[in-house]
Write a structure and sequence with these properties.
Length: about 400
């Protein structure tokens, strides 16, 4: 049978990046000793009060269709928090609940770009961005964040990439896979560029609550940005709720109307009880959130300390999030070859940086998603694998 051209747009490298992870999962299921650090799924449980809230919602009969833009109670909470954090005056009509940040990104991109448009994306970039953009027929224009500069973004590089076809800039701060954070000054300059060239900014902020030292800053809060910024967020990482599939967009009201239509034809709304549980997640004082943040930070410090001692191995210290990039170029292997050897011979599963973009070539991405002792064990194995190749 014949499949549509569309299927070609959503396949490709991004989808292939998971091959090593899928293989590792099979090995683990077969009882092999494998440490899985390839996925971005928190190893923490969803906080108990959130689970109780979902169970109560189910018992109370919240098992029916919901508003296509999402439960009003949840949208109100998100709008109030965003207004407080950014100084933007918004309400629930600026918020649309979708099935995770991934779905929110996909839907938002479809509402703002057309075939032939260009979307500027700092790279390395989260692997699904490529398909999200190409599904619309638009083109992803990568702007390098070089490893040599700590994977930091230069606003000048963004400016240089603008053409008369540019329609949007897709930012991700804090960043997957590098854990870098776009500075206030850089965001300010990007905001000026967006205003000058009348561009959208899509700002993926799913790791905002996992900042290790500084405070998160959203580009939505800069003067003149509210009308052209779409903030993407979810509870997947912040609350260890990846399986609940609740994320959202915050943007202009007109965008919400378009997204409501999109939700109607592809989702028909998100699960009601999940959304009501997210109200609890966002409004209750949950000690678990700070515990998680501090634990990620401690893991980062442990891994950095362990791997920095390995001569020739270069670690990039993340400022936030749940990943760390490690430069293995001294081995002479590609990241894919190194990751394959590491899995097959040493039982550690990581992703090859190349999948995130050419600037991450020769790097592996480690998820800080296991207990510190397990992370230490994984570091030992990485060290052995790395050193065996230098001999
Ligand atoms: C940068 C980034 N954006 C979006 C997502 C998707 O998140 P969600 O589970 O909310 O769909 C991820 C997941 O790993 C991510 O790393």
């Amino acid at each position: 049978m014949k499949y549509s051209k569309f299927t070609e747009k959503i396949g490709g490298e991004g989808a292939e990046a998971w091959n090593i992870h899928n293989r590792a999962v099979i090995k683990a299921e077969q009882g092999e000793d494998v440490i899985l650090l390839s996925m971005g799924d928190p190893d923490f449980d969803t906080p108990r009060p959130v689970i109780e809230s979902a169970v109560n919602a189910l018992r109370e009969g919240h098992t029916h269709y919901t508003e296509f833009t999402g439960e009003t109670a949840l949208r109100k909470v998100i709008a109030a928090q965003h207004s407080q954090e950014t100084g933007c005056q918004i309400d629930e009509e600026n918020v649309v609940i979708l099935s995770g940040a991934q779905c929110a990104l996909y839907c938002a991109m479809h509402c703002i770009v057309d075939a032939g448009d260009e979307v500027i994306v700092p790279e390395p970039a989260y692997v699904t961005y490529e398909a999200v953009i190409s599904a619309t027929g638009a083109k992803k224009v990568g702007v390098s964040m070089p490893a040599e500069e700590g994977f930091s973004l230069s606003a000048k590089a963004i400016r240089d990439a603008v053409t008369d076809k540019t329609r949007a800039i897709l930012l991700n701060t804090p960043h997957n896979p590098t854990g870098s954070v776009i500075s206030y000054e850089c965001l300010k300059e990007i905001a000026e560029i967006a205003i000058e060239y009348d561009l959208w900014v899509v700002s993926d902020e799913v790791y905002a609550s996992l900042m290790f030292d500084k405070r998160h800053c959203s580009i939505a809060g800069f003067d003149g940005m509210q009308e052209r910024t779409i903030v993407i967020n979810s509870v997947s990482k912040s609350h260890a709720m990846t399986g609940w599939r609740v994320g959202w967009t915050i943007g202009p009201k007109e965008l919400s109307d378009h997204l409501a239509n999109m939700s109607t034809c592809m989702l028909y709304g998100c699960p009601t009880f999940s959304q009501l549980a997210v109200v609890t997640a966002l409004t209750e004082e949950l000690d678990e959130l700070e515990t998680m943040r501090l634990e990620y930070k401690a893991r980062r410090d442990t891994v950095f300390e362990e791997l920095s001692q390995v001569e020739g191995l270069v670690c990039h210290l993340p400022e936030a999030g749940m990943f760390m990039m490690v430069d293995i170029r001294k081995t002479g292997l590609s990241a894919e070859q190194f990751a394959t050897k590491l899995l097959d011979e040493y039982g550690v599963s990581v992703l090859a940086g190349d999948a995130f973009g050419p600037s991450a070539s020769g790097h592996i991405r480690l998820g800080l998603i296991a207990h510190q002792d397990v992370m230490r064990d994984a570091c030992g194995r990485i060290k052995q694998c790395f050193e065996s190749l230098l001999q």
